[in-house]
Design a protein that fits this description.
Elements: E1 3-10, H1 15-28, E2 32-36, E3 39-42, E4 53-61, H2 66-80, E5 94-100, E6 105-106, E7 111-112, H3 121-130, E8 154-158
Antiparallel strand pairs: 1-4, 1-5, 2-4, 3-4, 3-8, 6-7
Helix pairs in contact: 1-2
């Protein structure tokens, strides 16, 4: 089964509980959690007049194809109470597929690797917590090479176990 890296974030309600709920729903739907990054508190990206986020990256094992996984993710977000607002707006939960093995995939609904993975420290740093040697499937470069080019959103690393 392929390894997939998912990014989860929340900035509304009980942020930690929202992330835990999402992880539990994914597990109940056959997603095996292999490892977790540290949890990070981050400032909002894009629209900054909103609460800070909690962010984490998880490495998972799944037999779901990318589009099937995306459907599960969207249903999970809906089940937790996510409502569509505006781009970069506040959200009770946000789940993104960062990487799906070394797959390069583009459809009308999904792009893998995530198009912003090399620009956002709240994606890259947690990803590198899990595997410092990770490489970008498109360029072949190590992700650590992109750290200096990211937006600085991370404010704090939290010592919380999930």
């Amino acid at each position: 089964m392929p390894f997939v890296f998912l990014a989860l974030g929340s900035n509304l309600g009980n942020k930690l509980e929202n992330i835990q709920k999402a992880i539990n729903i994914l597990k109940k739907n056959g997603i095996e959690i292999i490892s977790y990054s540290k949890l990070y508190e981050t400032t909002p990206y894009g629209v900054t007049e909103q609460p800070n986020f909690l962010n984490i990256v998880v490495k998972v094992d799944t037999d779901k194809e990318p589009e099937e996984l995306l459907k599960l993710i969207k249903q999970t977000e809906k089940d937790i109470g996510r409502e569509d607002t505006f781009k970069w707006g506040p959200r009770i939960i946000d789940i993104d597929i960062l990487l799906y093995e070394k797959l390069i995939y583009r459809s009308n609904t999904l792009t893998i690797p995530h198009p912003e993975i090399k620009k956002r420290d709240f994606f890259l740093i947690p990803l590198l917590n899990i595997d410092i040697t990770m490489r970008d499937p498109e360029s072949g470069r190590e992700f650590i090479d992109f750290i200096t080019q990211t937006e600085n959103c991370i404010t704090n690393s939290l010592k919380i176990e999930l």
